[in-house]
Amino acid sequence: MLSVQKFTFNPIQENTYVLYAENGDCCIIDPGCYFEEERNELRRFIESKKLRPVYLLNTHCHLDHVFGNKFVSETWRLPLYLHETEKMVLSFAPKSAEMYGLPFDNYEGEMKQLNPGDVIKIGTGKLRVLFTPGHSPGSVSFYNGNDDYVISGDVLFSGSIGRTDLPGGSFEVLKQSIKTELYTLPDITIVYPGHGGGTSIGYEKKNNPFVRED
Q: Which residues are within 8 A (CB) of 133 and not within 5 positions of it... i.e. 6 or more apart?
C-alpha cells in the first residue's frame, strides 16, 4: 500500500504529494514548496514518519510544480524524473516565475526520463506512468492500481480540466489524454489533482462539463 499525504504550497496553491510505503520508502511528486516554512513543513513530515525519499517526480514542469525541485534533490540527494519533452518547460520556469514576482533557483541536476508504461516501485507499491499531454507537452500521471488512485497533475480536476492556453498546450490533445488514459481507469479510482480537492474517475466521466464520456 502507498499512503498519500497532500500539501498545498506557494501562492498559486499547488498540491504537492508524498506517497509512502510501509517500509518507509517514499516519493515526492511536484514539490511546490516556495517559502522556507513550506520546505520545513515537508521536511518535518518526512522526518517525523521516518521516511526515506527514493524518487523525485514531476507530472509536468510549470513553475508552481517545480519550485521545490532543487530543495528536495539537494536534501535527499535525488535526481529528477520527468518526461523528456518537459525539459524545455522546466528551463523556462524561472522566466515565467519572474512574471509572477516569484523568483527561484531552478533545478539543474541530473534528469532521468519517464516513459509511458514505466513502473515505479516504492516499497511494495507500484506507480504506472500514463502519458497525458495537453496541459503541457509532456504531462504524465501516476496510477496506483492496487490502491485505486491516480496523481493527475494539472490534467484533470474536480469539475474541470487543465488550462490549454500556455505554450505547448492543446485542448484537443488534453481531451484525448483524459478519454484514453484516465477515463479508461476504473470508476472507483480516486483522482488527486495538482490543485484543489480530489474527485473520482466515475464522477468526472458523468459530470465534468469539459470532457464527458460519450
A: 85, 139, 168, 170, 173, 174, 177
